[in-house]
Known about the structure:
78% helix, Growth Hormone, Chain: A, mainly alpha
Amino acid sequence: MSVATGAAARPVRLGLRENWLQFTLLVVVNVCVGGLVGLERTTVPLIGSHVFGLTSDLAVFSFIIAFGVTKAMTNLAAGALTARFRRKQLLVTGWLIGVPVPFALAWAPSWGWIVAANVLLGVNQGLTWSMTVNMKIDLVGPARRGLATGLNEAAGYTAVGATALLTGYLATTHGLRPVPELIGVVFVAAGLALSLVVHDTADHVALELAQHPRPLPSGEDTTLAATFACTSWHDRSLRGASQAGLVNNLNDGLTWGVFPLLFTDHGLGLAAVGLIKGLYPILWGLGQIPTGHLADRIGRKPLIVHGMLVQSAGFVLALALLDRPLLAGVLSAVFLGIGTAMVYPALIASVSDHAHPAWRVGALGAYRFWRDIGYAAGALVAGILADALGLNATVVAAAALTAVSGLLAARWITEHPAEHRPKSPSAAAPRR
């Protein structure tokens, strides 16, 4: 079955091979998305303490809180916005909002400007990352969702890690500002230009809706409120995915703020910290290509549960080997990166499995809301615990919380084949 693409009258088909060019363009766009947020991984916590003289860890981590809350809210809004705007329009808008970010990070006269830049960065990331992942899912159809999300997240997080490494090196040779931050101008320009070229995927969504084995009955409640409630709590598997996503990004937000301070306190320089902060997302990114494919073959749940436990072990290693800080940081980054690579595409694919195409964008938006509120939660928890009990206690708390999250995922998440997906958010609600 196919539909036509307007004036071009070309058939629309679902599949990675059938849509490889558009898929590849979207992969490159997400490299730029990840590169922009990667600007902050190594330098910004140190800018807060060394340039602006912040003494409270919570104050230093405030930029992550601003970023996480804004990105989470934008993720949630993105689902509703797709009912009024095309995905391409939202993608381009996200890039336009991100234009001031590298300039503000490079020349901010006060810490408040850094926090404000992270509000803009959160909106940018919420719109651009949401649209790239949704457009890829639209293109490939249900059979290759794990691989599609793995490739999308691999592109983004590999760019995050590579940029963290590069900024660490540039900070060592040119100082914390402005040179490391100005490479973000390249990411914004390239991302915006490519987004203008990418085709919208509305026809692919229409085709999947026509082919879906269980059509959505008229009158079913697919509102944002119903979808949010279903994804957050009513559907047992979606609840399990949402809590795991939150804790996963809580870990990222916590390490984003804590690790640069923890390892510099133990004698490491900027280049070594950049290596640790870069290695984590690079492994997270590249690892999602095989794990995304594996999620399509063995199922989502095994990767989610074991991935959370591997992350917990990463935090344990960070403290157990702290008398050798470089080894501790590298091994921790390896375990955190591999564990997150196992979890990330499997969670997105699991949420997609449990949602009808008519409300899938809303479900993904709700899931990504909870996942990315984890950035803010991680920074907030880290700041409070670090100020009260120290950085080491913060890492212990992260290890324990991650292990509990893995056990909850094991209890709540079930494999849910495509042909048995719920018809609507209200139809999914009774499953507890």
